[in-house]
Amino acid sequence: MEQKVVKQEERSSYPEWTQNSTYTEYLLRWRLILGKFSNDELLEKMDLKDLTLLGKNIGMERFDDLEKSLSFLYDREYKFEEEYNIVEQWDAMRFSSSKYGSSTGHAALTVPKWLSNIKELFPEAATKTLEDDAIKKYGLHEILTDEDLLDKIEPDLDLVKVLLTFKRQMKPSLLEKAKRIIKTVVDQLEKKILNEVNSAITGVKNRFQSSPLRVAKNFDINKTVRRNLKNYDPHKKRLMIDSVYFCSRIFKQKDWHVIICIDQSGSMTDSIIHSAIMGGIFASIKSLKTNLILFDTQVVDLSEHMSNIVEVLFSVQLGGGTNIARAMKYCQSLITNPLKTVFVLITDFYEGGSPQKMINIANQLKETGVTQIGLAALDYKCTPSYDKEVATRLSEEAGMEIGVKTPKELAEFVFKVINCGR
Q1: CA angle 159–161–163, rounded 5-degree value
Q2: Banded pLDDT at 1 (limits 50, 70, 90)
Q3: In 3-state terms, what secondary structure has residue 339?
Q4: Which of 28, 152, 246, 324 is most exposed by smallest CB count within 10 Å?
Q5: How many CA atoms lie within 13 A of 205 on its CB side?
Q6: Best CA proximity match to 36, nearest among 116, 123, 103, 82
Q7: Cβ neighbours, 10 Å, residue 228
Q8: 300: exposed, middle or buried (C-beta count within 10 Å: 0-12, 13-18, 19+)?
Q9: Predicted TM-score (pTM) of this structure
């Protein structure tokens, strides 16, 4: 027989289904999943006090704390409409406290208190999910003041973006820890990109010099056969290969100049990270001179710091206005040999100044022979939001190639230009 949930004297004030403990537990769990706006249909408008009592009677302790902790985070999914104004739900609750309960609820929680609560209320795996969602999905950067949590979170690109976005709010004692986390992710990403760039380097084959880079397009079949003739089996008529050789590459030009100019808008964070890594890789190639320029309304030249990608990223000031024309003008001043210069502009093309000035400078670069490419994104997602009208004008009026590229595709573009010798 099912356990009775509500005491005999309390039955008249509760729905009949509360007499079934299994059914009650299911409903309370669904209530936690769906949130407080499911009260009317799911639980017949029972308030949080009643639900907490029901929870205690079936062994679900601290239902109110569970509800507040989940609401603190996941109510951010909702919007609440009041008098035709869209208001964030946690602000709007004061308009409807009589219907949904006290407005103090989860709004009374602070991030440190919330962190403390979830560690008490949920198992380790669930706590990790909540922490990850808080940082990566909802941007609760206050979490980054918790040193223990920062140690436990798995380093990845999403965490790097949060650290870079909110580095100004971090305590000095956490900055070095944040840099170590960023370096871990950057090193992993750099290794991946470097492998792709190596496969994109297509200079002229030098058949007199072997290369340690095992790239298929550099395969030296003649040398491989000659060096392995000693392994030929005349009975089986097979050549056994124990050593494979690859040609090195000779670039037609040794003095090419690559300028990477990056918009610091908040929407460009992924591209900034990949661009900084690409700048460091290009700078390590002896045949290239590389400049790395960041801009918002001001221009910052970080070319001397490209060997330290973490410091470059910590120099980024995400957000603010945008003056693309000013950045392009500065980059133009760096050019000494236009015919051997590749200008890479990475931006969302939302110009805070005059778009016509951008187009005029792009035309000047075109007339002198600079190869130009404008990227709305440089990452592996390639799903940008950008000003298509301005981008189209740069393409049609100034001949700038416009698109989105992965790091490998950018490397292929640059080295194709170099090898064609313009």
Answers
A1: 70
A2: very low
A3: helix
A4: 152
A5: 11
A6: 103
A7: 16
A8: middle
A9: 0.62
Nearest alpha carbon to residue 147 among 124, 123, 181, 117:
181
Distance CA 218, CA 212 (A): 10
DSSP, res 133: I
**Over residues 168-186, mean pLDDT:** 86
* Angle subtended by helix axes 269-283 and 407-420, to nearest 10: 40
Alpha carbon 233 to its chain centroid, in Å, reads: 54
Residues in the chain, overall count: 422
> What residue segments make up the domains of the chain, in order of their start?
8-107, 110-154, 204-250, 256-420
For the stretch 288-331, pLDDT in tens is 899 999 999 999 999 999 889 998 998 888 767 889 999 999 99
Q: CA 135, 302, 178 angle in degrees (round to 5)?
A: 25
DSSP secondary structure, 34-96, as one string: H-GGGHHHHSTT--HHHHHHHHHHTT-TTHHHHHHHHHHHHGGG-EEEETTEEEEHHHHGGGS
Q: May I ask the CATH architecture of the domain 256-420?
A: 3-Layer(aba) Sandwich (3.40)
Indicate the residue type of 272: I
- Encoded tokens for 376: 């709305």
The SS3 assignment for 313 reads: helix
Nearest to 115 by CA among 63, 152, 88, 160: 152
Give ∠ CA 316-318-408 in degrees, rounded to 5: 65
Contact, 293 vs 271, CB < 8 A?
no
Please provide the average confidence, as pLDDT, over all residues in the chain.
78
Q: What percent of the chain has pLDDT over 90?
A: 29
